[in-house]
Structure formats: C-alpha cells, structure tokens
Known about the structure:
Layout: E1 4-10, H1 18-31, E2 37-39, H2 53-70, E3 75-83, E4 89-97, E5 100-106, E6 131-133, E7 136-140, H3 149-154, E8 160-165, H4 172-186, E9 189-194, E10 205-207, E11 213-215, E12 221-227, H5 228-237
Parallel strand pairs: 1-2, 2-3, 7-8, 8-9
Antiparallel strand pairs: 1-12, 3-4, 4-5, 6-7, 9-10, 10-11
Helix pairs in contact: 1-2
Amino acid sequence: MSRILKAAALQMPNQTPYRKNLDRLLAHLERLHDHDIILAPEVSMTDYDYDHLEAAAAFGEEVIAALSERVGSQVVGLTLLTRHTDGRYTNDAVVIHDHRVIHRQSKHKLFLLGEEDRHLAAGPQEGIRLFEAGGLRYGVLICFELRFKELWRQLEGADVILLPSQWGLPRKRHLEILASALAVMNQSYVIVANSAREDMAASSAIYSPSGGVVLDDMQEVIRGEIDRDLLKKIRRYIVMR
C-alpha cells in the first residue's frame, strides 16, 4: 500500500450535448491513469437541466455504466441527477471503484437561493457517512452542505473528504475558507472540484490537514498528493478529544 496517493480535482465547464461532458471526463481519466483519486464537479455531466430532468437522469445511468467499465483501482467521484421509482429526482454523489458504485448519497441540504428545492428532493441526513476504499476512509459533502457544521461532525474520522460543487462566484472566498477549515478541523484531506462555468467560483483545490493547499483557477486539472504519514502525524501531534 503506497504511502503517497496521487489525487486530481477537475475544474470543468458544462457543455451541450451531454455526451461532450462524458467524453471530456473519460479523456481526463485516460490522461490521469496513474492517479488514485479523481473528483469531478457537481452535476458536471448535465448541469442542473431542470427543463429536461428525465433525459438528464437517463444520461446519468449511461455515465455510471461507462465509468463502471473504465474505473478499476482508482476512486472516481461526481454527482448525477437521479430519478426514483416514485417520480422524485435527487442530486446524487456517486463514487466508483473496482468497476462498481461503492457509495451513493443524495444531496441533503438543497440550495434555496438556486431554487433546487423546487425541482429536487432532499436526501436523508444519515446518508452522509464514511465509507472505505483502497485502505482509506472517505466522506462526501455536496456543495452547499459544506456550510453546515453538524455535517462536518458526521464525517469525523475521514481521511479524505470529497466536495463536488457548483459554487457561485460571488461566494468564492466562502468556499475556500470553509474547505480549508474543514480540512484542519477534521484532520482530513479535502478535495474540492468546482465548476469552471463563468458564473462559478472555480477554486478547485486539494487541502491538507496541516493547512496546505494546491489551488489554480487557470487549470482544468488540479493535482496533489494524499500523504498517509501526514495524516498519522497530524493526528498524533494534535489529539482531538
């Protein structure tokens, strides 16, 4: 088991038709074949296409099939619009590893300013939980959920917290401050993948539990490292109990 893992946060725009977004993601996976963890932004495959929710959800199933075929030892995360049998739609974080979906959770805290609640159903809070892959403990928060400190507590003990986002440009500093604070407070790595659309904050980054950050608004791929020894060192040095 390697001490250092390579991580990548994608800072992608949304394109139409949907297939362009999947092709772009697959191309990134090909180029990042030696990376262990890859995170794409929130709803990066379809955007919040409320006028075509059924089509967006159907395409989400195509995305899962394509990624499940392609993704082996890597951990790949993103969010997809999902249709449920009762007709509800949710925004689901999906994490794929070893050719299958290993974790799925529906967005619990909907962004009222963006009127998400008019189109999507909220997921249960208990869906925000730790899961394991490749010897690491992971957690996921979806965009607006980063603002809620009670959700930080649910992810205590995570080695890596994934944060797929579509965070607006006017609140750019909020994203950066909160993500950095989460990494230090929870003694975890935090990987932020945010939309590169013109009205979005960018700010995709990899934050370390020691306060370090790799951030570059000009790049579509932000690369960093997950150091298992640093996690152990920080937790031994500053005991949170």
